[in-house]
Every structure is written in structure tokens, then in C-alpha cells.
Write a structure and sequence with these properties.
172 residues; alpha+beta; CBS-domain; 2 domains; two-stranded antiparallel ribbon; 5 helices; 6 strands; elongated
Length: 172
């Protein structure tokens, strides 16, 4: 990596020039090659128009969660603690892995016992690439969107796919 300040040829990936000690980290940033890459790298999560969060309190039952998810045609519910802050997320995956076939009567089971506590979150200003990376690494299909400590939305893989599809149609 050639230092733009002194012209010294540094090792690839160097954070600073070994001759003049100038910062080289900005030279190593990836550059977008098309509109989709540009959107993923530059657009914030807020462009997805996150769905408003459907929430239940920690003491809600699994039956209430199932009924709420069916009524709202959603795959995940945010679970709030007594202060209204995010305590966890209860998803279809939690239902299938932690409840179905293991418990017969879901009417009295608290979702707090089956939710994913302290889930990964994003903010409205985080990049789409950051959100997608979290989803990929964690194997999540839903991410809560938090602003000033409170849940303001939920994004899903479906939201990201629709966004990318919209970009593709704009080019056509």
C-alpha cells in the first residue's frame, strides 16, 4: 500500500505508514461497485421502513404470543420488561425449537421462559450492511430496531430482500 503522503510502499493492510506514520486506514476501505453495494454500505436501516414493533410483556403466555403473531401475520414479537425496554424476542423459531412437541398446554407458559433474551439489535442509523452482517452471523431472520434504548421497529430478511428488489427494478 503506497502512502499518499510520502510515497513509501507499505505492507498491504498497514494501518499507518512505517516511514511518516500517517494514518492509512481510510485507504483500505472497500468501495461499492454497483447500486446494491452502495445501498448496503451507505443507506441506514431507516430506509427499510421497519415495521412498528408488536410487543408483549414478559408475563404474557405462549398462547398470547401465538395468537398475536397470527393476527398480525408476523414471525417475531418483542418482549418488554417492566420499564418498557426490550427484554427479548420471541420468534417462530423459538416456538418450534423450545415449545412445540415439548409442552402440550401453552396457555399458562410465560414467553419469558422461551424467548431469546438480550437479542442483537440495530439502530435506525446503522448501515444495512451492518444489519445484514448481524443477521448472517447470528442466523437471525428478525432484528429489533432500538432508538434511545426503546424498541421502535423490527426489520426482517424479507425487508432487506424487498429493498434490494426495489433497487434492481429502478435500474431496469
Amino acid at each position: 500500500m503506497i502512502c499518499p503522503h510520502c510515497g513509501h510502499d507499505n505492507l498491504p493492510g498497514s494501518e499507518e505508514c512505517s516511514r511518516c506514520l500517517q494514518d492509512l486506514t481510510q485507504l483500505d476501505l472497500p468501495a461499492p461497485h454497483n447500486r446494491i453495494e452502495r445501498s448496503l454500505m451507505e443507506d441506514p436501516v431507516s430506509v427499510l421502513g421497519a415495521q412498528r414493533p408488536i410487543t408483549l410483556p414478559e408475563n404474557a403466555t405462549v398462547r398470547q404470543a401465538i395468537d398475536t403473531m397470527l393476527a398480525n401475520d408476523i414471525g417475531a414479537i418483542l418482549v418488554l420488561d417492566n420499564q418498557g425496554k426490550l427484554g427479548g424476542i420471541f420468534s417462530e423459531r423459538d416456538l418450534l425449537i423450545k415449545v412445540t412437541g415439548l409442552h402440550n398446554d401453552v396457555d399458562d407458559l410465560a414467553i419469558s421462559n422461551f424467548m431469546t433474551a438480550h437479542p442483537e439489535t440495530v439502530t435506525p442509523t446503522d448501515s444495512l450492511a451492518f444489519a445484514l452482517h448481524k443477521m448472517d452471523i447470528g442466523g437471525y431472520r428478525h432484528l429489533p430496531v432500538i432508538d434511545k434504548g426503546l424498541p421502535v421497529g423490527v426489520i426482517s430478511v424479507r425487508n432487506l430482500l424487498r429493498h434490494i428488489t426495489r433497487i434492481c427494478h429502478e435500474r431496469a
